[in-house]
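Running this now, will post back.
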Amino acid sequence: MSGLAFQREQLVRFGHCDPAGIVFYPRYFEMLNELIEDWFACALGLPFDVLIGQRQVGMPTAQLDTRFLRVSRHGDHLQQSISIERLGGGSLKLNIAFVGDDGPRVEFTQVLVCTSLATHKPQAFPDDLRAALERSLAAQEQETDKP
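Update: finished.
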């Protein structure tokens, strides 16, 4: 897929499913958080344990819109992707999709806000995080512009 900031594959496990045999919807939110953490660690080079634990920089969700489109079952493989819609001074709007063989299963629009964990107030992105986000956005836009 082009125009993505990050993507990975997620196996739907037994523990993700409810007695009906489909993903229990709160598990999608756990998968979403794991995806965001992996993006920060793998693509941006800033693991949450460093940002949150050592540097006291929070990235809480300020808004989360969700669209459940199809069911996912134990054993399914979901392609999870993140694209940056907007990069502000201290906030970030993301479009996220989990796609199965039959098309989109769930889509999220998520706004993350950079905060100080000392004050729990919004703050500008630290310089290294801003630079990593700008690189990710530039790569995403370059992919989108390819024929």
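The radius of gyration is 16 Å. More later if anyone needs it.
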